[in-house]
Amino acid sequence: MILEKYSMGIGDRFGCQGAAQLQAFVKAAEKGIEVTPVWNKSEREHGIIHTVPASVRQEADAAVRQVGWKKAYHVDADHIHGKIVDKYLEAADFFTIDVAEFIGGAVDEAEVTAFVARRRGSLKALMAEGVDGLALPTDAQMMAMMRKYLPAVKEAGRTYRRIVAAKGADGFVAEVSMDETDIPQTPLELFLILAAVADEGIRAQTIAPKFSGRFNKGVDYVGDVAAFRREFEADVLAIRAAVREFGLPANLKLSVHSGSDKYSIYKPIAEVVRKHGVGLHLKTAGTTWLEELAGLAAAGGEGLALAREVYANALGRFDELCKPYATVIDIKTANLPSSAKVNGWTSKDFTAALRHDAACPSYNPDMRQMLHVGYKVAAEMGERYLALLRQNSSVVGEMVGANVSRHLMAVFGV
Ligand SMILES: [Zn+2]
Fold first, then answer.
1. Which residues sit with Cβ closer than 5 angstroms to ligand 1, an ion?
2. Whole-prediction pTM value?
3. Which domains does the chain have, with CATH numbers?
């Protein structure tokens, strides 16, 4: 199974917006922008919403039938690892093998030594790419890097081989992700990690490193955009060198786990991707839920009442809801309005604060991040929430589709 050049991960926590999301890909394709949709859902989301991996497969298949999509699409077992992979084997055909937890784990010193001896000569291929400011590491530096990353790649190999045993090597798309960690990987580290990926026999088609800067949920990138561009381009060159040097799949590409809405870096990403003619996987996730909430608020009546209730409840459970997402949110609580104030808001007030429009003075990124992680509140409402989504499916679907389109156009439409 070969992943197409451009692909975008879309999340749909409540499983109601598959067709609305897919319509955005249809519209892009009508403009000549061919992007493959990949529905992704993590174990944590399944746990909170009480869904199973098969739910995502059903949703994707139903959306494809409803919309009449004739091209490729995938279902991503998002951030799985060895302990949970088994239950995703049937439903998924894209596996994001997350081994961040194994970085710096127990390692066999003899294997590290052997790796450095075997791969030192390969660094020439990376140097030949002319990556800005790249210096050759000493053996000791290479050893230190591989002590850190070899345990993670070896774990990825174990999980990968389990998937191969169940689905066959050609039966799925493999991604290796190391993004959910504190310290970004340098382009040199990425190159060496890919050498280890090749050693493990992993036919990875996408790799998700941790980039510099903050990728907070549902809001824009926080960091030095020019530095990000240099890092992103160096990673592209490191991958190109690794593909040639280690015989990895020719379509191996970067996967950016964006946390959605990283508009300020979409342009540099698009420029670098075009400049080098490489592919890209952009993963977005929870903003579909925020568009649902905005759609309900916009609908007024019961919808607006529910949106206010979600806000009040989430504010009251701030610590509980934010804790699992602490590394990917940055909320200034002083900027969160009181629930009494929000209870007085009109539809327009609510949507203006929630929706990501940087030019709008009422836009409140702190509130947006809190509500992003507040989907648990709606999950607990269960059928009441889902019934309102169905009743307001046209306004909600329009907002969901517009949000997916905005991402597609910003990254792939230039
Ligand atoms: Zn991720």
1. 179, 257
2. 0.96
3. 6-286+406-412 (3.20.20), 289-392 (no CATH)
